[in-house]
Amino acid sequence: MRLIISTSILCVALTACRNNIKEKEIVSTDTSAIKPLVVTDTVFDDSDDPAIWIDSMQPSNSMVIGTDKHKENGGLYVFNLQGKIDKKRSVTGLKRMNNVDIAYGLIINKQTVDIAVATERDKNSIRIFRLPDMQAIDNGGIPVFVNDSLRYPMGIALYKRPSDQSVFVIVGRKSGPSEGYLEQYLLTGNEKGMVTAKLIRKFGRFSGKKEIESIAVDNELGYVYYSDEQFGIRKYYADPEKGNDELAVFGQGDYKEDNEGISIYKFADGTGYILVSDQSANRFNIYPREGSKTNPNDHKRITSVLVSTNQSDGSDVTSVSLPGFKGGLFVAMSTDKTFQFYSWTSIAQKAGLREK
């Protein structure tokens, strides 16, 4: 297996590290995979996508929500940081839960509420749950792609606009047109404590090669990324007021087969990393979050890291240090019905990346 790594010693300065990589690439003979600190309990049938919720008041109570895609008994499983299922808060009996994402501070009836939003694929709906109790606040589900014959929602990501704190949900589907593949909805809370959704725009290109599932949003920089599988990673503005022009396509030629799960590791200065699953190679390709020095939309691969997951589909990452996870937590799905938890420090040291 060919891994691209930094040619120098562990780089403390991020820009110096990248300059070295651009000058020369070395094929590593180290083919050992990073081992997770935690492997979760198994879900009922088919693990798919995780999302991390951080309890800012008591970080040890933070949790990971993972989807199970079973057609009749699918679910949203809640795991503690030790990977144990919280049966009281997990929600089962759902119809093929595909992807999930989290937003903090949606205004509902004059209160701020954290939410988890997921696609219930076989009901052509999105589901919304209040955090941390996982109480449904969507009146049983909100239909999406209503007037379209191509439905089956899969990918999902939440965008919170910094200027006015509005929360939007961006949804992808199993198949769709070459233009306007994604739908974006504005979420609004009402006086009954429920959430409604209003369609704001349709946007995003599709190559037609396979499907689009993984979507990730960078709230602070204002971008949305999605995996057009076997084609590349596409980049747009997350704010609908900034238009529908495609900003970049990157990662082409970097994958054995499918480019899949996307997660974004963020530093406070606007730099960081975009991690994308090279599913069939059991590795994650890593790109600069901020682009290059001269072009914020120039995302050339920095390196790759081999992990212990099998055929990883979805992932999530946070740069917030949590108990047992120095430098942050990276979570990736594996096909053995589990999710694997890694410390950011272990990934950064393996790949020659910045730790904090």
Fold blueprint:
Layout: E1 4-5, H1 14-23, E2 26-27, E3 38-39, E4 47-53, E5 63-68, E6 74-79, E7 91-94, E8 97-108, E9 111-120, E10 125-131, E11 135-136, E12 142-143, E13 153-160, E14 167-173, E15 179-189, E16 195-205, E17 212-218, E18 223-228, E19 232-237, E20 248-250, E21 259-266, E22 272-278, E23 283-288, E24 303-306, E25 315-318, E26 329-334, E27 338-343, H2 344-351
Antiparallel strand pairs: 1-2, 3-27, 4-5, 5-6, 6-7, 8-9, 9-10, 10-11, 10-12, 13-14, 14-15, 15-16, 17-18, 18-19, 19-20, 21-22, 22-23, 23-24, 25-26, 26-27
Give the DSSP E fraction (strand runs of 2 or more residues).
over 45%
CATH fold-level assignment of the largest domain = Neuraminidase
**CA-based gyration radius:** 19 Å
The share of residues in helices is under 10%
CATH superfamily of the largest domain: TolB, C-terminal domain
CATH architecture of the largest domain: 6 Propeller
Organism: Sediminibacterium goheungense
Domain BPP: 24-351
Pfam families: Phytase
GO molecular function, one term: inositol hexakisphosphate 3-phosphatase activity
Description:
InterPro entries: 6-blade_b-propeller_TolB-like, B-propeller_Phytase. One of its GO terms (molecular function) is inositol hexakisphosphate 3-phosphatase activity. This is 3-phytase. It holds the Pfam family Phytase. With about 350 residues, the chain is mainly β. It folds into two domains: about 1-30, no CATH class; about 35-345, Neuraminidase (6 Propeller). The chain has two helices and 27 strands. The protein has helices spanning about 15-25, 345-350, and strands at about 5, 25, 40, 45-55, 65-70, 75-80, 90-95, 95-110, 110-120, 125-130, 135, 140-145, 155-160, 165-175, 180-190, 195-205, 210-220, 225-230, 230-235, 250, 260-265, 270-280, 285-290, 305, 315-320, 330-335, 340-345. The strands form seven sheets. Strands 8, 9, 10, 11 and 12 form a five-stranded antiparallel sheet that branches. It has a four-stranded antiparallel sheet with strand order 3-27-26-25. Strands 4-5-6-7 form a four-stranded antiparallel sheet, with no helix packed on it. A hairpin with a 2-residue loop joins β8 and β9. The radius of gyration is 19 Å and the shape is globular. The two termini are about 30 Å apart. Mean pLDDT is about 90; it is low at about 1-30.
